[in-house]
Amino acid sequence: MVTLAEVAQHAGVSASTVSYVLSGKRSISGATRQRVEQSIRELGYHPNAGARALASSKSNIIALMVPLRTDMYVPVMMEIAIAVATTARLHGYDVLLLTGEEGPDAVRRVTGSGLADAMILMDVELADERLPLLRGTDQPSVLIGLPADTTGLTCVDLDFGATGALCVEHLAKLGHQDIAVIGEAPAVYERHTGFAERTLDGLRSRARELGLRVLHRPCEGGYDAMTMTLARIFDERPGTTGFVVQNESAVEPLLALLRQQGRAVPEDVSVVAVCPDQVATQASVRLTSVAIPAQEMGRYAVEHLVAKLDGRGSDEVVLISPELTVRASTGPAPSAS
Amino acid sequence: MVTLAEVAQHAGVSASTVSYVLSGKRSISGATRQRVEQSIRELGYHPNAGARALASSKSNIIALMVPLRTDMYVPVMMEIAIAVATTARLHGYDVLLLTGEEGPDAVRRVTGSGLADAMILMDVELADERLPLLRGTDQPSVLIGLPADTTGLTCVDLDFGATGALCVEHLAKLGHQDIAVIGEAPAVYERHTGFAERTLDGLRSRARELGLRVLHRPCEGGYDAMTMTLARIFDERPGTTGFVVQNESAVEPLLALLRQQGRAVPEDVSVVAVCPDQVATQASVRLTSVAIPAQEMGRYAVEHLVAKLDGRGSDEVVLISPELTVRASTGPAPSAS
DNA sequence: AGAAAGTGTCGAAGCGCTTCGACAACCTAT
DNA sequence: ATAGGTTGTCGAAGCGCTTCGACACTTTCT
């Protein structure tokens, strides 16, 4: 292993000079800098991460806590994780992957050991146990998701309230009166992950303003669950013509079942999904959808963290405005045509 | 930040004693151990990761390199990543998430800086640029995937050759004569990621032995691509009754199109998929499939790495035997019934 | 011309931990 | 009782880096 001292010797300068060449924290003459850089290249020198962390008390690592369960929005999570890793590298940081499994202990461990300089938390629950710990440390953090109390925290998320409203507005404009909402799995609601409830709230209140009727049913993904859910919906509200789907793994089953029942999309019923664009464009009917801006959130989280670590930036809650893309799954309500 | 020295003082022992309590590398009397542990708890002590890494030249971090592109098997990757992170924690390691973006440089950086003690590489190409570097370092590594030359490397993967053979055997047993293989996107083949080719080879050679006809067509995911591909297949081989699908995002489109064309599954055509069980069970027809043992591979990779780091374990190539689960998408060939 | 300010470099201290050798204190076996 | 072995603890060195203050030298201003 090549050390700083060896580089220094090779270049005929002191160790501190090499260090300053590397960090740029003091001015170095062009000649010296070149000599040092040359030696670094020749010897194939890489600074030792541990020594660096010890001396500077900065690890240049950002911890990313992902949910353990893979029962929901897996592609979204992956996209965020990759955006985080890529953006972090751009700023000279590496990413430590933590699963939610350890819970609050992971936060303690990471902040206590100086393993990471900052944290990004995904899958935040409304009253998350990790939040008090984050507030009690001076280590910067960003939540992807929105807890009930955001004081002292920085959060990014899609504005799910507006998303719900946007979906219902679109359907209202097309003349639909009876809307069914295919929600996430019941477990998601029990866990009080905020986004599902926020979508629903936004959707309901806008529907009330517009005078639409809304029926909400949670739904596990897959065909069997969807079959049951759909049957119940048409049983209770036979006149349903608009669907809002928030569960990726319910999208395809819903389309298949509707088709099977002879209900044409979009002629008889319209479907709006909240899902990544990829899912929307690859479905059997190209779906009118509100995209989940996974990459944007990941990138923002890292950039905000880096700003904070540089002494810039402050706590804030950023809600990304939803954008609805009209595709082939929505059309005028049958009675309106 | 609480340090070892503070703990030592609080417990009335020397720093080295505390260190030995923590590591268990020397025997400590029960009384002392308890006093130290008590102090650790009271002060909320966490060893500093950087200092530890510097002094011991071990970071207790395993690097995981995931592919940057999210165009294929995303859920599989996520499952592996989570299994890796979880298993690693069980053994006292953390996981550093690297994207393939940096390529070979990432390997250099990580091994050079002592950031991680070991590496796991996913999405290995047949002649991967990173392999020479791995062979040239004494840092343990495990590949998930199988390159062309495995000398001096440890690899885990599903036995894709056997997987292909297994699929075709199953269809042969049911009397199918004409098999179509819906492969991965052309890009996957161009990239020479081994698994796609190995599946095909295994499948073809077994088909030859059994006297079946095989038509292979790569296919991007999604409906549009699938429509084209399927049209070509029935155009060239109208008698096709058996399908093997290796592209997750082609599964649902295929089923929908077959249905649409009035070809019943499994009465008219049979479909075997190579995909995670979750995809197989949630599809519109419960799919006969060979599972991709994502968790098992992730777990194995970590455990092998830990063994190597402990001085046990050696280089080896582990090919996991495929298991075919019969579900509702395969049945006797029409002419055979 | 001399003081003040800036430049470029170095030496040394120290970050918090691990680990080695040393050494008391205590057992055993002769 | 004494040599030899254990056992439990300590002190000190050192891992490779950053960073502070010091210092020589050059430039600029009055």
Explain what the structure shows.
Chain A is an alpha/beta fold. Helices cover 47% and strands 16% of the residues of chain A. Chain A has 14 helices and twelve strands. A six-stranded parallel sheet of chain A has the order 2-1-3-4-5-11, with helices on both faces. A six-stranded mixed sheet of chain A has the order 7-6-8-9-10-12. In chain A, helix 13 links the parallel strand 9 (270-274) and strand 10 (288-290). The interface between A and B is large, with 54 and 54 residues. The structure holds a DNA duplex (30 and 30 nucleotides).
Brief write-up:
The structure is a homodimer of 337-residue chains. With 337 residues, chain A is α/β, with parallel strands linked by helices.
List the helices and strands and how they pair.
The structure is a homodimer.
Chain A: H1 4-11, H2 15-23, H3 30-43, H4 49-56, E1 61-66, H5 74-90, E2 94-99, H6 104-113, E3 118-122, H7 130-135, E4 141-144, E5 155-158, H8 160-173, E6 178-182, H9 186-190, H10 194-210, E7 213-217, H11 223-236, E8 242-245, H12 248-260, E9 270-274, H13 277-282, E10 288-290, H14 294-309, E11 317-320, E12 324-325
Parallel strand pairs in A: 1-2, 1-3, 3-4, 4-5, 5-11, 6-7, 6-8, 8-9, 9-10
Antiparallel strand pairs in A: 10-12
The first copy, chain A, binds a DNA duplex (30 and 30 nucleotides) through helix 2 and helix 4.
